[in-house]
Design a protein that fits this description.
- The structure holds 2 protein chains of 2 kinds.
- By secondary structure, chain A is an all-alpha fold.
- In chain A, 65% of the residues lie in helices and 3% in strands.
- In chain A, strands 2-4-3 form a 3-stranded antiparallel sheet.
- In chain A, β3 (233-236) and β4 (239-242) form a beta hairpin.
- In chain A, α3 packs antiparallel against α4 (98-118), α13 (297-328) packs antiparallel against α18 (434-460) and α17 runs antiparallel to α18 (434-460).
- The longest helix of chain A has 32 residues, at 297-328.
- The radius of gyration of chain A is 23 Å and the shape is globular.
- By secondary structure, chain B is α+β, with helices and mostly antiparallel strands.
- Chain B is 33% helix and 36% strand.
- Chain B has 2 helices and 9 strands; from the N terminus they run ααβββββββββ.
- Chain B has helices at residues 2-31, 42-60; strands at 66-70, 73-74, 79-84, 88-95, 99-103, 108-112, 117-123, 128-134, 139-147.
- Chain B starts with a helix and ends with a strand.
- The chains are: A mainly alpha, B alpha+beta.
- The interface between A and B is large, with 35 and 43 residues.
């Protein structure tokens, strides 16, 4: 028999699977809520218009002042620098090195939630955007003309970000896993990857323009920006304002490749949740076969996981496309292409719910490390204590298994409701006839129930 | 418009009722005294719950399981031990290699000599799933489950 190593270098503790009774209750609530949602169906779209209005000018003036923005950018560059330095020079123990927890937990898992609450917070702190803007301003001052950029191919849309998103998660959960020895991604590898990504991003910014690349190409801007669309706070016309919640999401997916971004988000989280539970048997048998075929342990594991991550992406895409095809069969339906892009944004809340459900406990525990020993001893050398918190640690009793289960199920149910709401709203906008719009939504209801119950299922067989 | 508001209120009431039921049922499960509150679903839930804690109780009983390490790997695969919070966790590791045994989460480390053995005995204070490994080899030997 072959031993599959565990994939999570950072997680010293994993969640217990949700018990059968909670699974049943979660699924029942989802069904009740869904049928109830059908019954309150409104007839006019409510989220298509944002109704943005500015907040008090004082706050805007302070937050959007170039000094504030400059300081934010500088801080972002500083944090990127610390991460790369810690990764290259610090300990190779993944859990003691600042780089891994900061990149893969604090930023990757924390910023999406923060973006919903506070708006697109990543934008001012984005280190590559900050560098790109300074470089652009420098060029303009020296050459006395604005840099001439290439036209970004519109058809490419958000595809670079979708590919980058899969690559980023692949780096963590597939490349980081290795045969035989139980180590995750090494901090050194993460730092090198960050440098390569920085080089690539800055090149693209030079070619297409900083802001242009951030809109559709830069992985983190696109990913965090997607979640920010769910929230109310937004900067527009040089001032901070509020809009109707969820309304900005409704025209997020008009750019090509957007559906791929949100599907990638759901798929990568699903894969990470399933690899040690629902998919474990299948992964092990494929892995054994590749090893028998003469592949090395590490190569076989990476290949197997890569295949499964792509299959998961395909699976999520197929479920969504079945929903789209189904809607197309309802009388008065707009063209398939309109439907395909028209409902992609309804998956954003599902993506967020998956993220919260799968990583809530990891986030809470790792943040304790982030703000104690990783903050005071970023290199993990054991000899530095910058803020006097180096001896702190993670209190694993901070969350009970019950608390985690309720957050997990709660996140999935709320995500489901918001997704359904957005889908119904879009249908009323696309179908002239209200009753046909409602009928088309049986299909999206099926899609949402599938995703939510699949999410619950993944939680119920975690670490199976 | 008005009828919509009423429907929303009914829906919210339904949800609240469902959540209250959920919490109540869950509590009776843990208490195991009250059996009247359950609806159709509760029988299945209760049986699931009992079998889980039953296994935990057996694990905590006199015989401490032994994990045998041969050629640096656990015989019979990764040992799965299940407990309930508050139990005393006891197990023994017999190893034919020199290494350090690390129980994650609880963060316990004990050295073991080749041909020797080492015993663990600690209270189950943290709920969750934890790995135990041969630290230097990075080989998982134990999966520890602590149910609430």
């Amino acid at each position: 028999m072959t031993f599959l190593p565990f994939a999570h270098a950072l997680a010293a503790r994993q969640d217990l699977p949700i018990p059968a009774w909670l699974f049943a209750w979660g699924a029942s609530i989802v069904l009740i809520v869904s049928f109830f949602a059908l019954s309150i169906a409104w007839r006019e779209p409510r989220f298509e218009k944002e109704n943005w209005r500015p907040l008090r000018q004082g706050l805007s003036r302070v937050l959007l002042h170039w000094v504030t923005q400059g300081l934010c950018g500088l801080f972002g560059v500083f944090l990127l620098g610390v991460s790369v330095y810690a990764g290259l020079r610090g300990t190779e123990a993944p859990d003691r090195n600042f780089a891994l927890t900061f990149i893969f937990v604090t930023v990757w898992l924390g910023v999406p939630v923060l973006s919903v609450v506070l708006g697109d917070v990543f934008r001012p702190f984005n280190p590559w955007r900050a560098i790109g803007r300074v470089a652009g301003a420098g060029f303009t001052a020296l050459a006395r003309q604005r840099p001439a950029h290439l036209a970004y191919p519109e058809a490419l849309g958000r595809w670079p970000a979708a590919v980058g998103l899969v690559a980023f998660v692949w780096l963590e959960v597939v490349y980081g896993a290795s045969g035989g020895v139980a180590v995750g991604l090494s901090p050194d590898t993460a730092a090198v990857a960050a440098l390569i990504y920085s080089g690539y991003t800055l090149t693209m910014m030079a070619l297409f323009g900083t802001e242009r690349w951030c809109e559709t190409g830069e992985v983190f801007s696109v990913y965090f920006g997607m979640f920010a669309r769910l929230g109310s706070l937004d900067v527009r016309k040089g001032s901070l304002g509020v809009r109707r919640p969820f309304s900005a999401a409704t025209h997020w997916a008009t750019v090509p490749g957007s559906a791929a971004v949100v599907i990638a988000s759901i798929a990568t989280t699903s894969f990470d949740g399933a690899q040690e539970g629902a998919f474990q048997g299948a992964i092990e048998s494929a892995f054994d076969r590749l090893v028998d075929a003469g592949l090395g342990l590490t190569a076989a594991l990476r290949l197997t996981d890569t295949i499964f991550i792509l299959l998961t992406f395909a699976g999520v895409a197929v479920v969504y496309m079945i929903g789209v095809r189904g809607m197309a069969s309802v009388k008065g339906a707009p063209p398939l292409k309109t439907l395909r892009t028209g409902f992609a944004h309804t998956l954003i809340p599902i993506a967020l719910a998956y993220l919260v459900a799968h990583y809530f406990s990891l986030f809470v525990f790792q943040e304790q490390a982030q703000f104690t020993y990783l903050l005071s001893d970023p290199l993990g050398t054991g000899s530095t204590d910058l803020f006097g918190t180096a001896s702190g640690g993670i209190d694993f009793t901070a969350l009970s298994a019950n608390a985690i289960w309720y957050v997990q199920v709660g996140a999935l149910v709320v995500g489901h409701v918001v997704g359904l709401t957005l889908a119904h709203d879009r249908a009323t906008a696309l179908w002239g006839d209200y009753r046909m719009a409602a009928r088309s939504q049986y299909w999206m209801l099926a899609v949402m129930v599938t995703f939510t119950c699949f999410g619950l299922y993944l939680l119920s067989v975690a670490n199976g | 418009m008005r009828s919509n508001v009423v429907r929303v209120l009914i829906g919210i009431a339904l949800l609240v009722a469902a959540i209250v039921l959920l919490v109540v049922l869950k509590d009776t499960d843990n208490g195991t005294s009250d059996s009247g509150a359950g609806s159709g679903g509760s029988a299945a839930e209760r049986s699931g719950q009992t079998s889980g804690s039953g296994a935990g109780a057996k694990e905590g009983a006199p015989e401490a399981p032994t994990i045998v390490i041969r050629n640096g790997k656990p015989v019979g695969g990764v040992a799965e031990l299940t407990y309930s919070a508050g139990d005393q966790i006891r197990f023994k590791v017999e190893s034919d290699v020199t290494d350090e045994i690390h129980v994650h989460g609880y963060d316990l480390m004990k050295d073991v000599e080749a041909g020797g053995s080492v015993s663990f005995d600690f209270p189950a204070t943290i709920e969750g799933v934890f790995e135990g490994e041969l630290e230097n080899r990075g080989v998982e030997i134990l999966e520890l489950r602590v149910n609430p």
